[in-house]
Amino acid sequence: MSDIRVPVLVVGGGGAGLTASMLLSTLGVESLLVNSLPTTSVLPKAHILNQRAMEIMQDTGVSDAIYAVGTPPEQFAYTAVYAGFSGHENAGRRLAKIECWGNGGRDLDWVAASPLLSTNLPQIRLEPILRERAEQLAPGRVRFHHELVSFEQDADGVTATIADLDNGTEYTVRADYMVACDGGRTVGRIMGVEMQGLRRLASQVSIHMSTDFSQLAVDDDVLIRWHFVPEIGAMVVMVPMGPGKWGTESPEWVVHLNYPADDPRSFEDGKVEQDLRAALGIGDHPITIHKISNWAAEGIIADRFTEGRVFLCGDAAHKHPPTGGLGLTSGMHDVQNLTWKIAAVLNGHAGADLLSTYEPERRSSIEKNVRRSLENSKQWSVTGRVLRVNDPDLTAEQKWEHLSRAWSGKPEDADIAKEIGEALAVHSMEFHEQNIEYGYTYESAAVVPDGSEPLPNPDPVRVYVMSTRPGHPLPHAWVERGQGGDRMSTVNLVKPGRFLLIAGEEGHDWCAAAAQVSTELGVPVDAVRIGHASGDLLDPRMSWTRLREHGPRGAILVRPDRFVAWRSHDEVNEPLGLLRSVLNQVLHQIGRAHV
User: Exposed/middle/buried for 148, CB within 10 Å: 0-12, 13-18, 19+?
Assistant: First the structure.
């Protein structure tokens, strides 16, 4: 195989790497993806796709395919906590039922945030969809069973040696930039990157299996099931895997068991199956195990996300406990932030310094995500202590007796029932951390502050307050093309690789300035006026007007990743000069004027 010259080399073919490949293709940037494994994931792994992740999937053209095979909204509405699963007269009794990730589209906060809903699809089924689309967009440039052996970089690019593991040959790739989405297995190690944070918080074993639990599981609208099992003194987590049927009739499941660190039982499949049956109380109930995997929950972040022309994304830059479902989606958000910037630099629209904004923008969000994942994980330990399921001084029956106070209704149990109820209620935060998932903001040299303060937020974890303040995500609002015309979301007005100026109904001068500066700077900028009764698009419900935070002659400039770069509350004397300076600053163009 001959040597290759390509603008971007993507290392790793998981969720982040495949998303990077697809996004680069939609941006008109040629890339080569290499992945050392012969296939996509054989493990279910992560499965939650939040709203912003689904917006990214829509950009790449796979959102409909994901929704088609993902968990139906009505079976992705709740998470629930139970006392045991089977094998005891009270096993399977529900202790709490908590709305999760928008309650299947019934939570109006989530409906207001985005035109798309969150969904659920395990990586074992998600990644083949992403791979197929990536191959469609870049034929011959998505190569599985091709491994990065080594690389070095200089001032002008990266030179990598790739091994074709099918035929044992090697070839060289010369790229302008390398995007590492390999989980830290190769690139970070070669760079000497250190992962900092909390390691091996817990030792986990995940069992992917086929079985019929339809006569044992309850609550068809529940996704993740948390079973506190007195007999083993621990919690067992169960998640339906589909395909085709979900809820209680799911033909496949993944069950997560906790073990002490390096417990030898966790490495023997036969003993893991014994532990699984004991934990679920299912005796000789027929099961077919597909895969048993051992892993450690960690909350770690790379000491740097970039070095020269190499960028770390996804698990190569950060790893999270699975609680909260923030890991896979964070990787997708990483590459969304990075790829438009790489495209802008390669296309000559931006100076290379634009790429220096990747790390500060993403690190601030990642630190919050990892912290929230750790807090979510810790809270389950707190709940276990309140339930006393893991109390070594109690027998299994004594634990059952304590749990029964949660539902006995006896006056003497009221205080304990209240304590248990409050401990369980705290978990609603894990499944409604909308501001963490969707409302994260950016501060960097690619955002022009307007001197305003953030809007008040009563809960920075759970409450997403939509705003057009620079650095905030573009708010979603339904607008129309002409009276009674096609309805569209403001989110979908942003096209791949293009800036969008949204002006008020009287913002003609801003739109004219956008057209002229686009021509002058060679930067793709679309412009649109939105108003209640006049404009290029109409706002009959006042949905956008309530959110825009500027007057009829004001405007905002939105980056290609749908984050607000700049805002003017009203008209100015020289809109062309100001907008030119703004774009020069955001894009780090040479000789930019100070704004």
Answer: buried
